[in-house]
Specification:
Layout: H1 12-32, H2 36-47, H3 74-94, E1 102-108, E2 111-116, H4 120-135, E3 146-150, E4 153-157, H5 159-165
Antiparallel strand pairs: 1-2, 3-4
Helix pairs in contact: 3-4
């Protein structure tokens, strides 16, 4: 097999590689807006504008590539994600709230936590409802679940997901699929 000779004149080949990287990056960023997830999140944020992440600390997160709904476990999104967004939107329109912002939405101690710029009434009406619901919902599939401890973390996991996600041991270590070569 013959080697392809590297043809260059001084350091100009490095400049050519650098320019190719810049062009590739521009092309990649251009086509990124046509990614199905980007389009789906854009349409979701048109309907629920409070889901758009606007971070001054982490500007690379801005845009529509991820939303606050993407930050919660997939089972919760399946079970009550749309219902949560509808309840927040109805509360905002009912109380004529301007400039509502979600600062963070996440799972903490096996409960849904929403940090925002709202009042206590909002917390009592909506947050508490979904915190209670999230404690009883599987984080993987959205079915009714019970609490388990996995390596020190609390999670709500249904019986089906316990069988598929975890080894059946008292410590509930996560499954690791490793194949060893035999000689």
């Amino acid at each position: 097999m013959s080697a392809i000779p590297l043809q260059h004149k001084g350091w100009s080949f490095l400049a050519e590689i650098y320019m190719n990287r810049k062009i590739k990056r521009k092309i990649r960023n251009f086509f990124r807006i046509f990614h199905p997830k980007y389009i789906k999140n854009f349409l979701l944020c048109l309907k629920y504008p409070f889901l758009k992440i606007e971070s001054q600390t982490y500007p690379w997160v801005n845009g529509y590539y991820i939303t606050w709904l993407d930050e919660i476990p997939i089972g919760w999104r399946k079970r009550f994600g749309k219902e949560l967004c509808d309840d927040i939107k109805n509360y905002i329109s009912k109380h004529n709230i301007k400039n509502y912002h979600i600062r963070q939405m996440k799972e903490k101690w096996n409960c849904l936590e929403i940090y925002d710029n709202s009042d206590n009434e909002f917390y009592n009406e909506i947050h508490q409802k979904y915190q209670d619901l999230s404690e009883k919902t599987c984080v993987y599939c959205g079915k009714p679940a019970t609490w388990v401890t996995t390596n020190g973390w609390y999670e709500s996991v249904c019986d089906d997901c316990k069988k598929t996600q975890f080894i059946d041991k008292p410590t509930c270590f996560k499954k690791i699929n490793v194949e060893y070569e035999t000689k």
